[in-house]
Specification:
The complex is a heterodimer of chains A (260) and B (160). Chain A is an all-alpha fold. Chain A has helices at 6-32, 34-39, 41-51, 56-80, 87-125, 128-134, 139-178, 182-192, 195-222, 228-258. In chain A, helix 1 (6-32) packs across helix 7 (139-178) and helix 4 packs parallel to helix 7. The radius of gyration of chain A is 22 Å and the shape is elongated. Chain B starts with a helix and ends with a helix. The chains are: A mainly alpha (260), B alpha/beta (160).
Chain lengths: 260, 160
């Protein structure tokens, strides 16, 4: 009964291939629409406002608490080796290299990506996208491109804020609560963190994650089945696929940037 | 173009991101102390560099006076060739000696310069001859064991 006929396998493979092809075509089109999107900067600005400003609170609060926890846990371990001065370096490097871009991207997928998917999916379900096509307005150009570039702009800003707030959170715990020396905390951090190697790569990572998360969210919304269930599934898939893509890409990027 | 209410908030948002990156570069990283290759290069040969890494500090009397730029292996002399970038404002005598030292028990390794007595100063491209390798724990232990063994063996010899 559950035996697959060759024609079924072929059909499934062809469907998957078609999905990948559609995704690649949409991605290429969004990239090509960069000049078009900025011919109407108001649209992109409103999307940066919607995706970025509204995510700022959750990003800042999460960053603060991640910084707190990093400093506490790092202190417990470093204490055993009598090198608690290295706490500043530990907090700053882990935030800049990994936690800042990755956790900010995961939160961004949950906070902004889902709303993008639901919005686009409902537009498709309500046949608004088809209506635009009828009026000779390209929905990819008018709806998707501003959202895409808005997300790509918002993500690095959020990740940078996450890292900065996290470093401040680590400082509050290390210097304020535990009572480490203020000068040693910052000087060890400055001794271990490179401007281009660490801060630059952190920004680069968050730009890549911005492309990834926003594109996954838009693709899921754009290809959602036009039913309430289809939209809800697409929203779920956005979180799952964007998170997996971010974590997988993070491994590749880390291996490329910091390997040897 | 007309300004809308969102303009202010989006501007604030982007500004906040710029401030965050600036804060990370200035306060968490070493942008201010980063010197853009204003210095002179001096090479030195070491028998063993231990755990010295590129970008390690070069200190004299505990003050950072430069950085280790690159470390390569010289297959003619089988030694490590270390290129140091010293800051322009510091001059050292030609016969200064270099030592690989460790800050603290588990700290990073760095190069210490001890000034010599020569009149002439190190010029760009010079090679420092007098160097002292890093302490390698295994060598120390084997030296200690050998000296212990020698102490133990000495009375035996006297009895004969």
């Amino acid at each position: 009964m559950s035996w697959w006929r060759p024609s079924d396998v072929g059909f499934a493979v062809r469907c998957k291939l078609a999905d990948i092809g559609l995704g690649a075509r949409l991605f290429a089109k969004l990239l090509r629409l960069l000049p078009a999107a900025f011919q109407r900067p108001g649209l992109v600005r409103d999307q940066v406002h919607f995706l970025g400003n509204y995510s700022m609170a959750i990003i800042a609060v999460s960053g603060l608490f991640v910084g707190f926890v990093m400093a506490l846990q790092g202190y417990y371990t470093l204490q055993d080796f009598g090198s608690t001065e290295a706490l500043g370096q530990l907090v700053a490097l882990s935030l800049l290299r990994e936690l800042g871009p990755v956790v900010a991207a995961l939160l961004f997928a949950g906070r902004a990506g889902t709303s993008l998917t639901a919005e686009i999916g409902l537009m498709r379900a309500g046949e608004q996208l088809s209506a635009m096509e009828m009026m000779a307005v390209d929905p990819v150009r008018r709806i998707l491109a501003p959202r895409f570039w808005g997300g790509v702009i918002a993500m690095p800003v959020l990740a940078a804020v996450f890292s900065a707030v996290g470093v401040i959170g680590g400082w509050i715990v290390a210097v304020g609560m535990i009572g480490l020396d203020n000068g040693a905390f910052w000087s060890q951090m400055q001794g271990g963190v490179e401007v281009f190697g660490d801060v630059g790569n952190s920004v680069l990572k968050s730009v890549v994650f911005g492309f990834t998360v926003t594109f996954v969210a838009l693709l899921q919304g754009y290809t959602a089945r036009p039913t309430p269930e289809g939209v809800s599934r697409a929203t779920t898939r956005t979180v799952v696929m964007a998170s997996l893509a971010v974590l997988g890409l993070d491994f590749v990027l880390t291996a490329l940037m910091f390997g040897l | 173009m007309q300004h809308s209410k969102n303009d202010v908030w989006v501007g604030l948002f982007v500004l906040l991101g710029a401030v965050a990156v600036l804060f990370l570069s200035l306060q968490a990283a070493n942008l201010l102390s980063l010197n853009f290759n204003t210095g002179y290069r001096v090479t030195a040969r070491f028998d063993n560099i231990g755990g010295l890494k590129p970008q390690a500090a070069v200190r004299s009397a505990g003050v950072v006076v430069g950085r280790v730029e690159s470390i390569t292996f010289d297959d003619k002399t089988y030694q490590a060739r270390v290129t140091l970038l010293l800051q322009d404002r510091y001059a050292f005598p030609k016969d200064s000696s270099l030592k690989i030292l460790t800050s603290g028990l588990l700290g990073e390794q760095y190069i210490g310069i001890e000034a010599g007595a020569d009149e002439a100063a190190l010029a760009p491209g010079d090679t420092v001859v007098s160097t002292q390798s890093a302490l390698v724990l295994e060598n120390l232990i084997s030296q200690f064991l050998f000296s212990k063994a020698a102490e133990g063996a000495a009375p035996e010899d006297h009895k004969k």
